[in-house]
Amino acid sequence: MMDTAVDWLPRDWRETVRPYVFIAPAMLALGVFLIYPVFNTLYLSLRDSRGESWVGLENFEFVFTDDSMLRSIRNSLGWIIIVPLVAVTIGLIFATLADRLPRGEAAAKSLIFLPMAISFVGAAVVWQFVYNFRPQGFGSNIGLMNALWGMFGNDPVAWLSQKPWNNLMLMMIMVWMQTGFAMVVLSAAIKAVPDEIKEAARIDGANELQVFRRIVVPSILPTIVVVTTYMVINALKVFDIVFVMGSAEANGTEVIAERMIRWFFLGNHSGRGAAIAVILFVAVVPVMIWNIKQFRAQEAMR
């Protein structure tokens, strides 16, 4: 119908207008669902809790002065460093070892990848049973960690209240989920490395560790960058795990995305929630720019 409508235009206008007519629906969708929310969020971040009165940068001042917000920023930095580093490293090790299995490779990879099929909320519920703690008089402790801890004659511990180790325990949930994804993607990249290059290195006297470090890792570096970027962004916007695992403020486990949801939807303060969202958006942009530059640099080398 749109193409027919363009055909009714004067001949000189048809080919000039036609491309814009075809991309108009996509541009409209992007404008409504992406561009408008960005500017509306920026607008709300400069207004009060109800979005009625202008408050300027007051909400951003709150973000960088409130103790809970500063703690969430520090915790988020830990998430974006530790989670990708550990998950990618373990995933790379698993991918390398699984590829050397004479048989059962698919079954082994399926078991490691299985947590990826669980939602973040579901994973948090599963790990609540791992970290479960019940004070004396409230029933027996069923948590796996306390069961192992009790084998050595120790009293049960409220693991999620142990600062700052409780942050690492929450990060472990995301590592558990993301390791399978890293393993599958990196395994595919490793299989794409030509066997001739590895055999030539072995003939020249390189051992398996040297082949891995000097041949395999440089060859799959673009894939490692992509997987790492994906995990950094996921770690920046993590909310479900922290929210489900108990009171973030009481345990000192706040993260930026959790604060955003907490203020916007539960605290009924759209201004502060929007300001946190803007900061989160600004934090993600450099990661994406760096990823694009790395991708272009690798493409230029090919």
TrEMBL record:
Family assignment from sequence similarity: Belongs to the binding-protein-dependent transport system permease family.
Keywords: Cell membrane, Membrane, Transmembrane, Transmembrane helix, Transport
Organism in which the protein naturally occurs: Actinomarinicola tropica
Pfam families, alphabetized: BPD_transp_1
SUPFAM superfamilies: MalF N-terminal region-like, MetI-like
Principal cellular location given in the protein's record: membrane
Membrane-spanning ranges: 20-39, 77-98, 110-130, 168-190, 211-233, 273-292
Gene3D superfamilies recorded: MetI-like
Protein's membrane topology: Multi-pass membrane protein
Subcellular location: Cell membrane
GO process terms (BP): transmembrane transport
Entry GO CC: plasma membrane
Source organism, top-level taxon: Bacteria
Domain annotation ABC transmembrane type-1: ranges: 73-291
Protein name per Swiss-Prot or TrEMBL: ABC transporter permease subunit
